[in-house]
Design a protein that fits this description.
mainly alpha; disordered C terminus; 152 residues; rod-shaped
Amino acid sequence: MESLKKFFEEKLQSATGKIEALNGSKRVIEDKVEKHKLLYDALQTQLPNARVELNEACEKASSLDVKLEDKSTSCQELEATCLDLQLHLERHSNLTDDEKESEAEQMTGGDQGIENELYMNGEDQTTGGDQAEVVEVARDSNILAPSTEALS
């Protein structure tokens, strides 16, 4: 009987040790689950902010794409204007100074003519300082006569 009692005590002690080990494992798992819940909640809080930032970045990229397209169009228009001015320069290089001045005034009405043409084409706002550069290049190349204000 004594050996039977000892056998059951050992079994009880072994089972108690296993239960304690399992309880310890349970606490570790519960702690990990709690940490994961906290992490999940934190990520759920950050997700809407990240979505807002992503949408803002997409809108900005789209806006920059439109601006790039506008600048590209303006550049193409300026290149066409430059080519046109080069053609005028080649044509006018064979004329006398009086003929150049007379023809330039007839074609453009002085400096104001090309400025008005650029304005009517909408290039005054989109090209900014480029319009002034085109007029200056034209003046320097003797395509445009100096304005009447500059002569007085």
